[in-house]
C-alpha cells in the first residue's frame, strides 16, 4: 500500500536539509563552547573554510544557490526541547549536568550568526565572523554541508542501479573493516567522522554498523544527534581552536609561550577524569611537553592528531615516565588519518603500555575511494578553522608542516617562541 | 510517517508465500503444457524431485511443515484475470494468441493436483502423479519453493547487518557481471534462472539489473510473472520432458528410435520461427542429428544444454552444413552451466558463425557462492523430472552421463537403440 501522506509530505520539502539539528555536531564543540561562553564570551573571531585538496574544485561542483539554501537552513535552526532535555538530563563522561543552566539557557536561544560566501579560483571562500561562542558552532555544519553537497553533486550523475551498487560496495567495505577490528582484543574505538562524512544518513549507518559489529569495543560517537538518536555515548574533549585563539590574543612573546598552558588551566578547573586530555601538537608536541607544568602530567591522557602517531605516543610515554607518572594508567587517543591497518599496528604497539583508544574519522564515514568514476567520491581535506581573534591572525604549527597555517611572519615567530625546528612533512590524506 | 495499514496487512499473512502466481513459472512450461493438452492430455505421468547435491541435506535444513504450507499455498492458486488477459492478449515471439481459447479456458479453471511428500536419508521425496498437462506445471514451483526455503533457513541465522551486507555483496557481484557482459558486442542473453533462484525477489532484482545494464542485449526472461510485471519478453521453447515421455510410451525399439522426432513433428505443426528450436541431447546429440529428418535441419536453431557446449555447437554447425543449411542463419542457444567467463568464450568462438544466444540460469539468479558461512547459500543441483509415463519409466541420457537418469536396464537399452557409446563425464555445478 502507498502511504500517500508520506509521499505528499516528502514532496513538500523545499530542500532536503543536510543539517537538521544544532546538535548534529561534535560533542567537543559543545564542551568548548561552554568553556568559551564562560571564559572568553566577548572574543571576536573569524572562522574560515579551507580546502586543502585544491584539485577538488568545489565551486564548480557545488551550486552556490544550493549551498546558500543549506547554510540558510542551519541559521533557521534552534535547539529543540528534546535536544535541550538530552543535554540537560543526560550523563556525559559519567557526569550529570555537564552543561550548566546558564549555558543551556543561552544555547536554547541561539541562532547561528551570518556567513560570508564568495567564489575564488574554483573554490568557495566561506567565512564566519562574530562572537567566538557563536561563530565556532559553524565549523562542523559548514564542513558537513560542503562534503555532502559534493557527494550529492556526484550522485546526481548516477542511475538507480549504479547508486544501489555504490552503496552495496560501500557497506561491504565498512562491514569488512568492522569484521577486522572485531579481531583486536581490548580495542576501544569511537566515531569521529562527522565533519567529513559522505552524508548524514551514511554516518548514521556506519555508527550502527560499529554498534552491531563491535559491541563494547565501540565506545561512542562524537556526533551528538546520532548519540541521542541511537542512545550512545557522546565523546570528545577539546581542539586546536582553544590554544590557537588564546595564543593569538597574547600581547607578548612571554604570554604567547604560556598561552597553551593558560587555556588548559581553565579546562583543568572545569573538567576532570577522561575529559582531561592533552592536545599537545598545536605548536609542536616535543616542546609543549618539555615546558609543561607538572599538573598537566597528572592529566588522564593525550590525543595524537598529527605527525607520526607512533613516535608521538613514544614521546608522551617517555614524558610521563620522566614526570613520575605510570603510562599504563594513561589514555592515548589516536585521531589522525586512521584506517584499519594503522589501527591494528598502533594497537599492537601500544596496547598494555598505555590505554590506547581510537577516534576514527573520515575513513570510517567517507571511505568511497575508488567507488565512483574518476574517484569523484574520494574524501578530501576540508577544514574550517579560526583564522583570527580580535583582529589578530591565528597560527597553527602542528607536528606536520603540511597542516601548519597562519601568516609566514607569524609562523616564524611562533616557531622561535615555541622552539620548533625542522619537522617531517607527511601527506595529509584527510 | 508509518503506514499503519501496510504494517497490519503484512502481519495478517499467515505465511510469506514463495509462489504467488500460477505464471511464476517458465514460459516453455506453458507452451509445452498447451501442446500436451492438445496431443497427449490423458497421459499419466509422475514427476519426482531429485537433489543431485547429496551433501545439501534438505530435510534437515527445511522444516516439513513450512514446506507443506508452501506447497498447499500453490494448490490454492488459480490464474488471475490479469494473468489470463496477459496470456490471451500479449504477443509472444511476435505472434498473437499463442495460447488458444480452449487451452486458456482449461488453464483458467486449473488447480494444481496433490503432491506426495516423504523424508528419506535427510532428503525430501516429493512426487506428483496425474494427468501430464497438470502434473508438469508442478516442476518450477516445486524447485523454486525448495530453493527459497533453503535460502530462508540459512538467512534466519543471520543478523540485520549480516543480511544487509550479504545482499550488498550479491548485488555488487551481479552488477559486476552485467558490466562485463555489457562489453560483449552483439550479445543476446535471457534470464533462465527461475527454477534455481535464491528467491523470487532476488530473481526480480537480477532481471531489473539486466534490463538496466544491458539494454537491447537483454532479450527477456523465462519467468512469465516477471515478464508481465516488468513488461519484458517471455522466452523459452521446449524441454526434455517431451521426448522423455514420448520415448517412455514407445511400444517397440523402432518406435523408441522415432519418438524424439515424432514429438518434434507435433511441435513443427504448432510452431514456427524462433520457437522451432531443437533440443538434441536427450539421447545423445551426435546420433540424434545424424538420424534426424531433413525438415528438422530447416528449423531455426538448436539449444545446447549438456556436455561440452563448444564441441556440441561445432557438431551442429557441421550438421547444418551437411544438410545444405547456412549456419550463420541459425540460432544456437547455450543454456547449461553458464557464467560470465564461458559466455565470453562461447560468444568469441561462435559470434558471426551462428546467431549465438544465451539462457543464463542459476549463476545469474543464485550466485551466492562464498557469501555465507560454510558456503551455506551456494546453489545446488536440484531437478524435478518426469520419471514415468503410463507406468513406464522414463530415461534421459544427455551428453553428460552425470545428468543421465532412469533404471540401469532401460538406460542400457536406450544407449543401444540410440547408438550412444562412451561419453565424457562433466561435473554438474548447477
UniProtKB/TrEMBL annotation, chains A, B:
GO MF annotation, one: nicotinate phosphoribosyltransferase activity
Broad enzyme group: ligase
Domain of life assignment: Bacteria
Pfam families found in the cross-reference section: NAPRTase, NAPRTase_N
Known EC number: 6.3.4.21
SUPFAM superfamilies assigned to the protein according to its UniProt record, in alphabetical order: Nicotinate/Quinolinate PRTase C-terminal domain-like, Nicotinate/Quinolinate PRTase N-terminal domain-like
Modification after translation, per record: Transiently phosphorylated on a His residue during the reaction cycle. Phosphorylation strongly increases the affinity for substrates and increases the rate of nicotinate D-ribonucleotide production. Dephosphorylation regenerates the low-affinity form of the enzyme, leading to product release.
Domain named Nicotinate phosphoribosyltransferase N-terminal: residues: 23-146
Residue ranges annotated for the Nicotinate/nicotinamide phosphoribosyltransferase domain, each copy included: 188-422
NCBIfam families on file: NAPRTase, PRK05321.1
Role summary: Catalyzes the synthesis of beta-nicotinate D-ribonucleotide from nicotinate and 5-phospho-D-ribose 1-phosphate at the expense of ATP.
Family statement: Belongs to the NAPRTase family.
Stated name of the protein: Nicotinate phosphoribosyltransferase
High-level lineage: Bacteria, Pseudomonadati, Pseudomonadota, Alphaproteobacteria, Rhodobacterales
Amino acid at each position: 500500500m502507498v502511504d500517500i501522506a508520506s509521499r505528499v509530505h516528502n514532496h513538500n520539502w523545499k530542500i532536503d536539509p543536510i543539517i537538521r539539528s544544532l546538535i548534529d555536531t561534535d560533542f567537543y564543540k559543545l564542551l568548548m563552547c561552554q568553556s568559551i561562553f564562560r571564559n572568553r564570551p566577548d572574543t571576536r573571531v573569524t572562522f574560515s573554510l579551507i580546502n586543502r585538496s585544491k584539485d577538488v574544485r568545489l565551486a564548480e561542483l557545488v551550486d552556490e544557490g544550493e549551498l546558500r539554501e543549506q547554510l540558510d537552513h542551519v541559521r533557521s535552526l534552534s535547539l529543540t526541547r528534546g535536544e535541550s532535555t538530552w543535554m540537560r538530563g543526560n550523563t556525559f563522561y559519567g557526569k550529570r549536568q555537564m552543561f550548566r543552566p546558564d549555558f543551556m539557557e543561552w544555547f536554547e536561544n541561539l541562532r547561528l550568526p551570518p556567513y560570508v560566501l564568495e567564489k575564488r579560483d574554483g573554490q568557495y571562500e566561506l567565512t564566519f565572523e562574530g562572537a567566538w561562542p557563536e561563530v565556532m558552532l559553524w565549523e562542523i555544519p559548514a564542513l558537513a554541508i560542503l562534503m555532502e553537497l559534493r557527494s550529492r553533486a556526484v550522485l546526481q550523475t548516477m542511475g538507480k542501479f549504479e547508486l544501489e551498487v555504490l552503496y552495496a560496495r560501500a557497506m561491504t567495505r565498512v562491514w569488512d573493516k568492522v569484521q577486522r577490528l572485531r579481531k583486536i582484543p581490548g580495542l576501544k574505538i569511537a566515531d569521529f567522522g562527522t565533519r567529513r562524512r559522505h552524508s548524514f544518513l551514511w554516518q548514521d549507518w556506519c555508527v550502527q554498523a560499529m554498534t552491531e559489529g563491535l559491541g563494547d569495543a565501540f565506545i561512542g560517537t562524537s556526533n551528538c544527534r546520532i548519540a541521542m538518536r541511537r542512545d550512545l555515548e557522546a565523546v570528545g574533549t577539546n581542539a586546536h581552536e582553544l590554544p590557537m585563539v588564546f595564543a593569538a590574543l597574547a600581547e607578548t612573546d612571554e604570554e604567547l609561550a604560556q598561552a597553551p598552558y593558560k587555556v588548559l588551566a581553565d579546562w583543568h578547573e572545569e573538567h576532570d577524569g577522561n575529559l582531561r586530555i592533552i592536545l599537545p601538537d598545536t605548536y609542536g608536541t616535543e616542546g609543549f611537553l618539555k615546558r609543561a607544568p607538572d599538573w598537566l602530567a597528572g592529566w588522564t591522557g593525550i590525543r595524537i592528531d598529527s605527525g607520526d602517531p607512533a613516535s608521538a605516543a613514544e614521546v608522551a610515554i617517555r614524558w610521563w615516565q620522566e614526570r613520575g607518572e605510570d603510562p599504563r594508567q594513561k589514555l592515548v587517543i589516536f585521531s589522525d588519518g586512521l584506517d584499519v591497518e594503522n589501527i591494528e599496528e598502533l594497537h599492537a604497539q601500544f596496547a598494555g603500555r598505555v590505554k590506547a583508544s581510537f577516534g576514527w574519522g573520515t575513513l570510517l564515514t567517507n571511505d568511497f575511494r575508488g567507488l565512483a568514476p574518476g574517484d569523484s567520491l574520494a574524501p578530501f581535506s576540508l577544514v574550517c578553522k579560526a583564522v583570527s581573534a580580535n583582529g589578530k591572525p591565528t597560527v597553527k604549527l602542528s607536528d606536520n608542516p603540511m597542516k601548519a597555517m597562519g601568516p609566514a611572519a607569524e609562523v616564524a615567530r611562533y616557531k622561535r617562541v615555541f622552539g620548533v625546528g625542522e619537522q617531517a612533512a607527511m601527506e595529509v590524506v584527510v
